Structures are given as C-alpha cells and as structure tokens.
Fold this sequence. Notes:
By secondary structure, this protein is an alpha+beta fold.
Amino acid sequence: MANNDGTGEASGSDIQAVDRVGQICSLFGPHTTELTAAEVAERLGLNRTTAYRYCASMVTAGILDRGPRRSTFVLGGLMLQLGIHALSRRRVTEVAPPHLAELSAAVRMTAVLSLWGARGPVVTLVEEDRTRSAVVTVRAGTGLDATAAQTRVFLAHLTDERAFGWMTEGSTSAQRAELEAAVYTARRSGYCIASQSGGVFTAAAPVFDEYGIAATVGLLGADPDADLSADSPIITALLRTTTALSNELRGRPDGSTDDHSEL
Length: 263
C-alpha cells in the first residue's frame, strides 16, 4: 500500500485498503474462527477475486493464516501477538480477576469484564459461579450488541460520539429511541439492567481510570425472582466491585475518586 504522491501522506486508496483489512479482521470472532474468501466477499459486498487478493495479501503480512480446511483463512500470528500486547497495556485485566471472583461468589452469578473494542464492547474476562451445576455464561472474545447492559453502560460514558452510531447501524427509529433512553438511565443511575432472550438478565456498571471509562463489569443471571432494585444485594455488590476497581486503577487505596458521572 505504497503512497506515490510525494506528499508523505496516505492516499485515498491506501486508506481504503487499511479500512478493508480492518473490516475483514472484524468478521472473525468466537463463533467465526475461519472464513473462505467467498464468505468474506459475501459479507462485505466484494467480488470474490478482490476478497481473495486481500486475504492472500493478509496471509503474507501475518495478519491471516491458511485455515485447516481447504480455501479457509484464520487470524494469523501477528494478530495474536498484537492482541497480547494490547491486553497487557490494559491494567484493568491484571487487577480485575480477584475482584470478579469475589463478586461472583458473593452473588452466585457469572461475573464478566468487558473492554471497548474496535466498534463495540468485547468480553475479556469471565468468572463463572462454581457453586452451581448449571450456569449462565458467555465466552471471552464475544462481541456485545446494543441490547447488552455493558454496551449501554459504555455508551453512557464514552466521549466518542461515533460509538452510538456504530451500535445502532441498521436499527429502526424505535430501537434507537429505546437505546437512547436506556443510555440516559445508565448515565444517571450509575448502572444498567437489561433483559436478554431465554429469561436471562444482565446488570452492568462502569470501571474508570484516570482517562475515563476503562471497562465494564457485568453480572449474568436467569432467576426471574432476583431482586435488582437499587439497594439490593446484587446491585450493591456490583457497584462495590466497580468502585474498588476504579479506585485501584486510579491508585487511590483510600477510596477517594474523581466524579465521571457526567462523561
């Protein structure tokens, strides 16, 4: 993707190529570990020859590898290396595990930490309730949609105005209005509760560092009689956990914090 205009700036074609590489990478996830060029073409609206050329070039760069099945591609070693480096820079992933374990044990629910990815939240750490034989859980690496409580908490505190647009692409006006109301409530109350399919509910709250929202912590449950009022044991434990994490990330063991409620 060389630039030949002599200005030292990326050309329009260079930028488009970088954007296309990002789109191809974003197609992969916990439920999509390999893709053919034909599948890439279909999902991105490309012709198959163009899709194959991109995938083949990405193999050469280490971004993709050839998959175990014929004509398939998987994320490559470079992506693994960059992912490890990116996570290592997020201090919250280092300090969160004992907090998640304590929270999960206290409320007997699955506790989840999510980070904001390229265009939405991604589940990063999962602590399942080990006292139950059957649990409600989610895989690390799962991207969360606009219905997730953790997504709504992120939108309540992110300063990037594009985030709401990314999470509502293809949504109806009614869906956008419902999301706006949920985001407003999450911003004012400091947490969010959302109902999922199959009777599952999620509750989530933000974790802050000195730069703003760093992550969200969520709880997954399926008890229809669970008390989720503001002063309930579940919400109290959730907010106690996110406050402790925020204090630790800011380096304030005395419990003092900055007010990010209006971010």
